[in-house]
Design a protein that fits this description.
5-stranded antiparallel beta sheet; 776 residues; 24 helices; Beta-Lactamase; alpha+beta; flat; 7-stranded mixed beta sheet; Rossmann fold
Amino acid sequence: MGVLRRSGVDIIGDVPWGTHFCQFYQTKEDLTDILVPYFKAGLENNEFCMWVTSEPLGVEEAIESLRKVRPDIKEYLDKKQIEIIPYDEWYIEDGGFTSGRVLNGWVEKLDKALDRGYEGLRVTGNTFWLEKENWDDFVDYEEKLDKVIGRLQIMAVCTYPLENCDANEIIDVVNNHQFTLIKRGGDWTLVENTRHKKTRETLEKVKEREKFFANAIEFSAQPFSVEYPDGRLVMANQAFEGLIGYTGEELDKTDRSKTLTPEEFWEKEQVKLEELNTTGRPVRYEKEYIRRDGTRVPVERLVHLIRNEDGTPQYYYSFVTDINKRKKTQRQNLKLLENEQQLAAELKASNKALEQQKEYLVKFNQKLQESEDMLNRSQKIAKLGSWELDLVNNHLFWSDEVYRIFGLQPQEFAATYEAFLERVHPDDRKEVDETYNSSLHENRDGYEIVHRAVKKSTGEVRTVQEKCTHFRDESGQIIRSMGMVHDITERQKAEEHKQELLEMEKQLTEELSATNEELMATTEELKTANEELIITQNHLTDMVEKLKTSNRELEQFAYVASHDLQEPLRMVGSFTQLLKRRYKGKLDEDADDYIDFIIDGAQRMKDLIDDLLAFSRLNTQAREFEPVIMDVALNDVLNNLKTSITYNKAHISYDSLPVVKADPSQINQLLQNLIANAIKFCGEGPPRIHISAEEQKEQWLFCVKDEGIGIDPQYQEQIFRIFKRLHTREEYEGTGIGLAICKRIVERHNGKIWVESELWKGSTFYFELPKINING
């Protein structure tokens, strides 16, 4: 629906399909002033057009007004690209107005137009005929029309005589349209509906913010990936692709669990992921990746879990760290330990020298420990902010962290490149400006610089590191810059202090100097990396919580949407039944068949909506668990299925069943779905079904066994997916939701459900339910 269409009206311009607006008129010239160019554009855009007329402009006058701009209008009328009819042939039937009939009529017109090769439907309807007693019904019709055409290839303008509308009625009209045309001082004025405008602006802001955060992850130096539990890749950033040497497209075609991971790590990784699934706490472990060129890289993975609403794993997202340098340092430390042991053996002969060396090393270690303690107390967590500069409009966006680094409040900042330069230290300002502009003039991909900044709130001078990446338009011109600001003041101070310690260490002993210098550098890098990782983890935790909230709202939306579909569906069914009773045998045979097809389709859609509602209610209308006597529950289900059991001559046997702790209504639904399926897929002979239960350590294992047509092993996992069918509706009726409902019920009770079967050898469905503590 995002493709723009030419409206033909200058004040409106180009609009998308789904546009629904209104016009208040006083004369017939007002009508032709807007509608003639409106339909001229529709005819020239290969659209089917429909003009429903009323006083003061009749059908012939409408045709003549179009002939002035399209002398060939008769050709369009003859080939039926445009229909011009009076209101009583469209809005009125049997002396009254019915909104459902008119709404369905627009949809039917669109379907026919598309079948004939037209790109969409352009319509108008004049309401001069509308009486006061019909006003509320027509307002309700306009509200429904706005929702219907909003998602279809339809454009509509509704015309209202201004003299027939009081103030309240004008408000009703404006509220049900995206915008309104009204004449002021001889010129047409466009008044936009505030609600539509705010919705559009909000969606645009959400899309921009989602794009910003996606770019932040994509261009992060930290390798990052998101995967489904079965190993399929959801996304991976550039740093991850660079680490392993594969592109995202190549990863999609690769069995990552086997190709990228050496076999000796498979079992260890699986154990860690099972621990994550059980506890929900992030797991950290080391492994190796096999790069595209065949080399190996040692890494450390920090893996987090996002669950579905039913508690099952939905995504794993992981931060990957290249630990090649760490491994090298560990090997060096091991070598150092061996050297120290050899040195100790050589010094063992001289007790006096050894004691002096010990005393000396103790004092040195004490001083070193004191220095490290002082460093730890004075060091702060590094802060990382992001920014984006729109070069076309000279608009600069800062994240909250950048404002804190520069000591500013958003209302104090002009959000331009020049305002940023004012906060750079005067001695560094020229270098920063030249560095940025030279990267633009030399058409480089970005730049990196370290400079000082003065905090406005305190006057404090801070040292920051900036990295920038440029983005280009289709012509290659740089139009946008995005980067990060990292406050490294404390890190610089720490590095200077570290250098002093290293100098002192060098004076004490040359042999220990090199080793301690490497250890200190590695320690500092690890501290900084850990601090940055904590910040990133906190950000992702917030994102996870937002995603959970979004999933809950989406489930509620699915329930409401399915519920709201029932009313229009009942309307379709009722009117179609009425057509069948009133006109059966009066039309041709094809029409009778088409009516039967509609009735059958409406019934199938009702069944589908009922099942969807049942599926969504599993969480939204769930009850507290209580003791459920399974023998009683089974007896209730068999009574519900009595007609089907008798008709199919089914033989159903069962053992004595236990008492479990569960949701009673969901247990009845679970048993009824499984037994009804066993009856449906019985094969040629009468169905034979047996229900039993086996006590296990912490739950009961239930079994529903039949001698039906069976299930091919390759489909035994797929049948529990929503809408998954293995047979056509002609072979076996149904919606494909029943077993998905069973799976969600069992998982809500912390159990599992599965099937064991061979084709034409029957099926056995197993499911687990929790025990009840009779003594408690």
